[in-house]
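USER:
Try writing one entry.

ASSISTANT:
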Amino acid sequence: MIFTGISKTFSLENEDQYNTIGAFWDELMKVYELSNLRGLGYNWTADTIEYVIGLKDGIIDGANCTVELPDEGWIDCKGKTADLQEIYRKIYEDGSLKYEIETFTEDGNCEILYIRS
């Protein structure tokens, strides 16, 4: 699977990535509908995460990153966007991730697909 989108690096300090990545989503939702977007987190360090937002179908304008992802082995987790931090706490209880793909809906739901390191 190929994931193409706009990439930025975010700080993990004080779990601020929830706010800064959220602002990144808000920026792109001004141009694209939420239901058309998906986000990819990968390449974690002790202090940062690389995060890419792309379209579910097609190539987003301004794309600056392409990541080749596995086709199989993804674990699926669904929940409420308002509970995102708690969802991730539970996911990380079993170890770090190699990739995560997030999608969100206008009615407040989210889906996270992930692969462990």
Observations:
- The first helix runs from residue 17 to 29.
- The helical segments are 17-29, 84-92.
- The beta strands are 2-11, 37-42, 48-55, 65-68, 75-80, 97-104, 109-116.
- DSSP finds two helices and seven strands in the chain.
